[in-house]
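Project standup — Tuesday

K.O.: blocked on the structure for the chain from last sprint. Re-posting the sequence here as requested.
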Amino acid sequence: MVTIGTSLDHCHIPGRTDHHAVPDNTCVMGMGIHNEPGFRTISPIPSAEDLVKEMLKNLLDQNDPDRSFTKFKDGDEVAVMIDNFGGLSTLETEALTQITLTQIEKDWKLKPSRSYVGIFETSLNGPGFSISVGNITGVSRSTGHSISKLFELLDAPTNAPAWPKNGYANIQLPTETVNITKADSKDIDSASVKGPAFNADVFTKALRTACTRANEAEPQITKYDLLMGDGDCGEAVSGACTAILSKLDSGAVTQSGSVFGALDEVASSLEDIGGSLGAILSILVTAFTNSLREYYGAHSGAPLAAAAFAHSLPPAMRSLMDYTGARVGDRTVMDVLIPFSERLAASADLADAVHAAEHAAQKTAAMEPKFGRASYVGDRRESLESLPPDPGAYAVSVFLKGLLEGLGE
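H.V.: unblocked you, prediction finished:
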């Protein structure tokens, strides 16, 4: 999925008397719901048609290597979301929606099978909107699930109050455009792959210690993020760890009696972090669990050991790298995850890999940010005598060290 926002002004946050403002007859393309600065200020304000045309070009132009994160082909089944930042009238939102739907079909040969329009993620009174385009065909290609199944999931009942029950849905079932091979569609959750013997007490102690250490580090993580980001990283990490601890207390993490089920519960808690850190960690744990399932499917009867983790983590990292362009040196959580994975794969020694992760987290303090919010707060960065470590990278290194401690190594 790709997304881009544009706004006429900043939102006004209750309790704050000092507000930045966008000049009259000006709009900012790329502005976010938290008043994150955009990448292009446009004055005078263009027509709605020209504005949408440029936004779609930034989202869908496959010839732009800096922005073509998601691949689209003529005829792909797509879903579109138009999000009102909170300050647009219904008339304005509907007009922008119709312009978007017209142009995406005419200029990009994509006819959305689902369109969702409303106030989904709002900044109270932000006079702006965003366009998001999800390539359902692309998801089908990469996951092996049929397009019909994916739309069935999109259409599934939900008690989320703002989610439209049908919206602008084209109720005609889409034509299948993906040939799913046997390898793509294999069920890695097969009951025949029960997995290795699982010591729930050891797993619980290690996970509990890791979450406790990450919670204890929340003030430091928050301090680092306040200097370079918006200050919510520590709270998000603590929230996820608290959720995991709650599941441990209830027995939900280990009640399946399988390491696969336990890891699935961890992944679901990481989804609740939100933001890029939550997405990256959730994708990684899910991919790692699937990779581990495949390993034990091919090595039935093998014990649960570091060698299995060392074998299963690199494929999971490769899967994660399909979702982010961040690599070592970009000052993100990937600066820790990649060295940790490489060292574990090389040595099958968890302690050795954790030490590499700690060292890598500290190295981020000397790096210029290239991804995330820290990459576009240059005025704040220039006022600092020295940069702190990346908060996400630091948080993960603390968690991994706690995991090692809990295992008694």
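K.O.: great, moving the ticket to review. Residues 200-406 form a domain with the Serine Threonine Protein Phosphatase 5, Tetratricopeptide repeat fold (CATH 1.25.40.340). The chain has two domains: 2-154, 200-406.
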